Amino acid sequence: MASVLNVSAYLFTHIADPADLRITLRGRAEAAALRGTILLAPEGINLFLAGRADAVRGFVDDLRSDERFAALTTKESWSDDQPFGRMLVKVKREIIRMDRPAIRPEAERAPAVAPAQLRRWLDQGHDDAGREVVLLDTRNAFEVDYGTFEGAVDWRIERFTQFPGAAAEHREQLAGKTVVSFCTGGIRCEKAAIVLRDEGVDAYQLEGGILGYFEHEGGAHWNGECFVFDEREALTPDLAARG
């Protein structure tokens, strides 16, 4: 039975002291023998951790005791081996780089669609108002090549900073449709959905991203695997590492 718990989580929330917080979290993570990466920025936190289940969950519980991170939710998966080589805690300008300072999910989120709601829309072929649903993959092209939703739109971007330009270029193709942006864990589609709505597109984000969808709906309407940024490389819809 797989014994290493892997968690991913992010939260857009104002952090006034990311450099000081980095020292605190690094000490806690090392004391718990965790490995992975934690990114901190004034706009929030993004983390990928692996270790003993009690240690990982204890670290997350301690983090949630800080009111800034009380709303943090995690996505869990398991592996036989530790997928990270070391523990890194970094301070960045953004927890997911877009180079658009005006896009601030910590101030106001775009509306979200739960996995069950999205599956219902895909099963019936339209949203609850009868409109066409467009699934928009906001990930980089090489990630999309591992797998994506059936019929998803893929703009073949090479890095996320290209997304705003692509959204402006393609907005007319999305007019009058219900657009659901998605990404691995939800962090990119938080910003992507705001950009799309600023372009006049009726856009939503998939709550919890692809991994959240796998957790609740399995592989329905999905083809392939989901790339992840650790030594497992990709996960199947049952959240297992590729064979």
UniProtKB/TrEMBL annotation:
Superkingdom is Bacteria
Annotated Rhodanese domain ranges read 129-222
Q: Which Gene3D superfamilies match?
A: 3.30.70.100, Rhodanese-like domain
Q: Which InterPro entries match?
A: Rhodanese-like_dom (IPR001763), Rhodanese-like_dom_sf (IPR036873), TrhO (IPR020936), TRHO_N (IPR040503)
Protein's UniProt name? Sulfurtransferase
The organism of origin for this protein: Microbacterium thalli
